[in-house]
TrEMBL record:
GO terms for molecular function: monooxygenase activity. Keywords: Monooxygenase, Oxidoreductase. Gene3D superfamilies: 3.30.70.100. The lineage of its organism: Bacteria, Pseudomonadati, Acidobacteriota, Terriglobia, Terriglobales. This is Quinol monooxygenase YgiN. InterPro entries: Dimeric_a/b-barrel (IPR011008).
Length: 122
């Protein structure tokens, strides 16, 4: 990624995998541990930027998992990997249909952009 003025951008954009799934009752910790293993394995893949795992407030069985990828070719390579197969297999354990989405992020702005807007002449 390169910094262009107040905008953070890359030539082809960034891609994000976003998963929301329900753990089986009283099995949240097992699902989180499986997601941690998947995240650790993904770190070895080219193009991996960052991954996050969290539980929804007030609903500890609802688990969210996100991964950021630097380009579409690297994301596609990851989707074909055994690591992603492990994620798909984990999703099958969800008692409710999980939601898996791929987001394409073309523009990403940071705090400098916000500061420029807030403190600029109107």
């Amino acid at each position: 990624m390169i910094l262009v003025g107040l905008q953070i951008a890359s030539a082809s954009g960034m891609f994000q995998i976003s998963l929301r799934m329900m753990a089986r009752p009283n099995r949240s910790l097992e699902a989180i541990e499986a997601l941690r293993s998947i995240r650790i394995a993904a770190r070895m893949d080219r193009g991996f930027i960052e991954g996050r795992i969290y539980q929804e407030a007030g609903n500890p069985d609802a688990i969210c998992f996100e991964q950021d990828w630097s380009s579409e070719p690297e994301l596609k390579s990851h989707i074909r990997s055994s690591c992603f197969t492990d994620l798909l297999m984990l999703m099958e354990t969800s008692p409710v249909a999980p939601i898996l989405e791929i987001h394409s992020v073309i523009d990403l702005f940071g705090m400098k952009y916000i500061e420029a807007i807030r403190y600029s002449e109107r």
